[in-house]
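Subject: IS30 family transposase

B.,
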Amino acid sequence: MYEHYYADTAQIYYEKRRKNCYQRNPLKHYAVFLRMLSRRFKAKFDATSIDEFVGEFKRTMPGYPCPSTPTVYRYIDQGLLDISNIDLPMKLKRRRNKRHHSHGGHALHKKHL
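Prediction pasted inline below.
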């Protein structure tokens, strides 16, 4: 196939191909889903969560691409969508786990057994 290998040429080809291997604008790819999502939640739709909407969308419109639930939450947190956390009823009610819990008692090696 090739008679000679040139590292510089291989690097150029690698970089050229590498430019084409990522999704340029994921918001365009999921345009139908995101348009319906923003309409539903801006109209005070009674959905309890994004997860419910994702499941409903996958069931009713199987031919259209649909992002995963964590991806939608990530887009909302990054401000890429016109939905904010206030528009999501369950996200504000949910209590996050606290970190750095202190132990309720003494360590076993300190107890007098």
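The chain has a mean pLDDT of 79.

T.
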